[in-house]
Design brief:
Elements (H helix, E strand, L loop, with lengths): L2 H22 L23 E3 L4 E7 L6 E9 L3 E2 L3 E2 L4 E7 L2 E5 L9 E3 L4 E4 L5 E5 L4 E9 L4 E2 L4
Antiparallel strand pairs: 1-2, 2-3, 3-11, 4-10, 5-12, 6-9, 6-11, 7-8, 7-10
Length: 157
Amino acid sequence: MSICQKYCVYVLLTLVGGASLVLLGSARAADLNPEALKLQLPDQIKWVDDLKRGESSAVLAGDPEMPGLYVELVKWHAHHMSHPHFHPNDRFIYVISGTWWVGTGTKFDPDSTVPVPPGSFVKHFGKQVHYDGAKDEDTVLEIVGEGPATSTPAEVK
């Protein structure tokens, strides 16, 4: 199954699972079989801050540092952007909140970035140079990819 197919299955399961929780309404987590699903409420998601990079992240599934599928949340804090870089594999990004700013090429030029509003989907192609981040507000993204999710600098000054 390709990474794109895996992502589509993940999105479908997420939507079905979310709809089921809304319909169940009064069901408690204690009533659910932990062998059938893993439920994490917002206060149970562990965020890790990387103040040097200006972001926080929370791994929801898999491990971005190991081979295989992973799902993570990334929060770019306002006024922080990455510099030109690339990843070895495709990444699938959904903008949850805030405006995400994206650019391509080896020259870092935040003024040339394009705004990506909440609800948008972006695919980063493997081995293609890009940079991104947040300008005036925090931005939360869901990233699905194939690990290891290394980042190789590619800036030309």
